[in-house]
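#struct-pred

JT: dropping the chains for the assembly here, can someone run the whole complex?
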Amino acid sequence: MAFFPHLLLALLEGTVAAAVLALSALGLSLVFGVMRVVNVAHGEFFMLGAMLAWFVAKMAPGGPAVGFLAALIVAPLLVGALAFVTERLLLRRINYDPEATIVATIGLMFVIQQLALSVFGADAKAVPAPFSYRIALPWFGFSGYKLFVVVASVALLLGVWWVLAKTKLGLIMRVTQFDRETATAFGIPVNQVYSAVFVAGAALVAIAAVLIVPIQQAHYLMGLDPLLMSFIVVIIGGLGSIKGSVIAAVIIGLSDGVISIFFSPTLASIIATLAVALVLVFRPQGLFGVPAR
Amino acid sequence: MTARIVALHGAVIVALFLAQFVASDYAVLTITRIMVLAVYALGYNILFGYAGLLSLGHAMFFATGLYGAALGVTRLGMAAPEAFLFATFCGVIVSIVIGFVALRASGVAFMIVTLMFSQAAFLAVLYFGDITRGDEGIVIKDGQRMFPLFGVPMNLADPVLRYNIALAFLAVAIVLCLIAVRSKIGHVLVAIRENESRTAMLGYDVKRYKLIAFVLSGSFAAVSGAAYALLFAYAGSTLASIQYSIHPLLWTLLGGAATVLGPVLGTALMFLLVDFASGFTSASLLFVGVALILLVLFFPKGILGTLRQRYWRWLP
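RK: done, full complex below.
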């Protein structure tokens, strides 16, 4: 392939990677933004979403499209329910202490991984895309579903932004984020807000997984990659800043796509990690973060 | 140093020395492994327990020691003691560089950054698979583990020698830890853990002390890794993976963070638990996960931490 089509393919793949990244980091960013805790089991929620998508697609009668739509409903509901239980039984009991939360969610990560291994087995599972339209470019064909993922993730990002910026629910979340005690004093049920945010974060990553799994494959160890990539994105963007996360996702996604195609995916990951180091050296709070108060 | 502290820690070391005469071959091997990895946990505890900095990337330093020693012996033609010193030196350098960058972040960002660096190191091990042999790992041949010491031939494949070398490492590590935490450095680190801004206000160079703790901790990990590679003749990429960053955290939490013997006890107990569990299930990670959750929920101070709180106030 000549250089230009090659670059075009790299940029297209990069755009898809950016959308995937932004989508999987969104939930983590939201949870950290409001609750100031890092959920290390975030990647496992992603994996569960993907596994459920595979399971539903296998069970559902009438083709991949039906399975896909069913999974879009079932996966976020079940993963959200698990997140609800986690929040109640784990995070609330340790009073959202940042360190204890990290340790506990690491534990949860291992537990979910092992259970997924025992229930679903160790083999990778392919999930068919809901439609198989290929866009015929002069040099190569490109999966229409991948572009659909880009569109869907833009829509989801806009939706979350709209909720946060324009609705009363978003206002309550932002108040809780700004100052937990003052929010309590003004009669905001902070505990319920935390519950809702944690569940919403998990549901979002489950939706992301259902969207993404036809491009990748479901596997019980697949959670680590989105977790680390989400970390990269939220650190570079600034912990808790959704705008920052999205911009960082675009930068990292595009460079990831280009480096992966021209060199190797492993090299792309190493470079992305080193980018985090550079950002921290020159701007410890991230590109769009505000220094801790 | 008060007499009972010396007595307690001395007794542990003596008990471990005597254990080799009564334990079965299998137990000797297991205790050797526990002692080598306890050095790793002891180092981890300096940073996590005393300085209050939770690193999720110590596998990187462990792997530096591991591959430094393994590559030193197999590729650079070093004898085992040279390779050990070389690996330790690499560990110190890597800890200084990484510490310098990672300590710019604090709190949650610090944990994430250490995790990411460690993952980059893990990926680098896979990426340079030609040299490191990736998953499959480097096996050090028996001939490469023999070296003369003051004219006496030493063979690291000998279980008794191996046991006593590991014990020597552990003893030195325990003594160094005791000295460090009871010195001014240890007190300043605890002060930083309890209230960083107050410590800074009192005129201590907080950054410098954190870096000291980080480098000490990373060097212990590298020493442990180097000893692991040389004593067990193997270096593989699984030993550089995230699990190996979580292990010392778990061991320290179980035994009791900020107690000198806690990490040693935690390492031993976790080994026994996993060993016991592997009799009827292969899902050892499940136990690690459940242990972490239960510890955080019900037992945040660990065994020795709780004992110190209730009975033995003098425990260092």
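JT: nice. The beta strands of chain B are 138-139, 146-149, 152-155, 234-235. The longest helix of chain B spans residues 206-232.
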